Amino acid sequence: MIRLVAGVILFNLFLVTIQSVYGRNLVSNSFKLPSEVTEFMDGISEDDDDVGTRWAVLIAGSKDYMNYRHQADVCHAYQILRKGGLKDENIIVFMYDDIASHVNNPKPGVIINNPHGDDVYEGVPKDYTGNDVTINNFFAVLLGNKAAVTGGSGKVVESGPNDHIFVYYSDHGGPGVLGMPTGPNIFANDLIDVLKKKHASGTYKSLVFYLESCESGSIFEGLLPDGLNIYATTAANAVENSYANYCPGGNPPPPPEYDTCLGDSYSVAWIEDSEIHDLRKESLKEQYLQVKNKTELSHVQQYGDLGLAEEHLFLYMGTNPEIDYSSFTEESSSPSFSTPVNQRDADLLHLWHKFRKTSDGSPRKLAAQKQFMDAVSHRMHIDQSIELIGKLLFGIEKGPKVLNAVRPGGQPLVDDWDCLKTMVRTFETHCGSLSQYGMKHMRSLANICNAGIKQKQMAEASAQNCVKIPSNPWSSLQNGFSA
């Protein structure tokens, strides 16, 4: 490419010299630039060396059919990137892969992300599935450390200094934490440390991170510094839930045979926006504003090096050459959701519809009823345990105020992240797993650390509150600690 352009420049100089001698416009009358060079001169060549290689890491951090939407989001994101020109060797997919063939899936082998959508599961690489979807593998992949990977395809981001990296994560989360299907979970400080190491290695030109989870802003708030050439957007700010969509009973609902949500508000917004715009022309900032406008119940945020938002999405996602973008209008670009569902309640919605649809008196009806009651019981146990521990540590009146305190904007969740992990392990030792629901209480545990409580005090309060660990499956005793 460089030699071709240099040759054309020299040849043009030759033509200009001849023209000055003979007084003839040889360029316009007898010479046309090759299309590749014309595109280069127009500044839109898709083969421009400055683009480098596009890399993508896609992660669904959950498992189980009730979390169908997270794997559906990731599969749909893969289809966008693949049609945009990224090669499978440069797209690395993490997902538990228990949805497509799940007994509850009404279309075995098929995953959809929209009530009227096509199958998004076909062709998705099975890089890291099942118990290989771990924080250690994710970090090793991002850092390009093949030696640290366990299981899976072994693919890692082998990027160079001119390359662009796109990371997309979809799952449950909580203040300062992101879920993983195989523990432990991802803590914000550890993720930021990995991003700093990646930057220090000099192995990318810029990195974009799209994050779908409750309290997703807390992952970057007060933690992601400027100067790393990283631009991040999140589904929610640091103190609020994100929302699921295309849910049973919603508008629009999934097909009647589905009793689970098909997608998430933020994720569906950016994915469907990418399908209807020419990504050579749409910037990161323009997509951020579109997604922010369409994600109604949570506040989409942006962090990091905001100057990168002026770059075109094409640098990270490519663009689909088969689409006639002129046929789309902003009116047709919605998704429009009138009944989003709190991500933390989507599992209860699934279990309720599963119970409602089964025949009265049948074994399946009784099993569905037990599942629903176990889920509610687990939630009550976690909520009451955290509340009582706070009162034991700080007093009946002061306890709730300490646990629910929110730090000013721009500050990280906690000063001592090791303390937070210790408090999580201490709670789970005595009271059972927090689980995906209990991640909502990470702020309370962080505030316990910020108040100067020691591990011994936390252990005594937890033991006094939790005489025994509940044995229902929502406590997930067999899954180990989440920190």
Care to give the gist of this entry?
By secondary structure, the chain is an alpha/beta fold. It has 16 helices and 12 strands. The protein folds into 3 domains: 2-42; 54-342, 3-Layer(aba) Sandwich (Rossmann fold); 358-479, Topoisomerase I, Chain A, domain 4, CATH 1.10.132.130.
Describe the protein in words.
With 483 residues, the protein is an alpha/beta fold. It has 3 domains: 2-42; 54-342, Rossmann fold, CATH 3.40.50; 358-479, Orthogonal Bundle (Topoisomerase I, Chain A, domain 4), CATH 1.10.132.130. The protein contains 16 helices and 12 strands. Strands 2-1-3-7-8-11 form a 6-stranded mixed beta sheet, with helices on both faces. It has a 3-stranded antiparallel beta sheet with strand order 4-5-6. A 3-stranded antiparallel beta sheet has the order 10-9-12. Strand 5 (177-178) and strand 6 form a beta hairpin. Helix 13 (417-431) runs parallel beside helix 16. It starts with a helix and ends in an 18-residue tail after the last helix.
Notable characteristics:
single chain; 483 residues; alpha/beta; Rossmann fold; Topoisomerase I, Chain A, domain 4; 3 domains; six-stranded mixed beta sheet; three-stranded antiparallel beta sheet; 16 helices; 39% helix
Our count of helices gives 16
The CA-CA distance between the termini, in Å, is: 50 Å
Which strand order does the major sheet show? 2-1-3-7-8-11
SSE order in H/E notation?
Answer: HHHEHEHEEEEHEEEEHHEHEHHHHHHH
Number of domains: 3
Poorly predicted segments: 1-49
Task: Provide mean pLDDT, rounded.
Answer: 88
Give the CATH level 1 class of the largest domain: Alpha Beta
Largest sheet: 6 strands, mixed
Q: From the helix content, strand content and strand pairing, which structural class follows? A: alpha/beta
Query: Which architecture of the largest domain would the CATH scheme give at its second level?
Result: 3-Layer(aba) Sandwich
How is the CATH topology of the largest domain named?
Rossmann fold
Keywords: Disulfide bond, Glycoprotein, Hydrolase, Protease, Signal, Thiol protease
Organism: Protea cynaroides
Domain Legumain prodomain: 370-466
Protein name: Legumain prodomain domain-containing protein
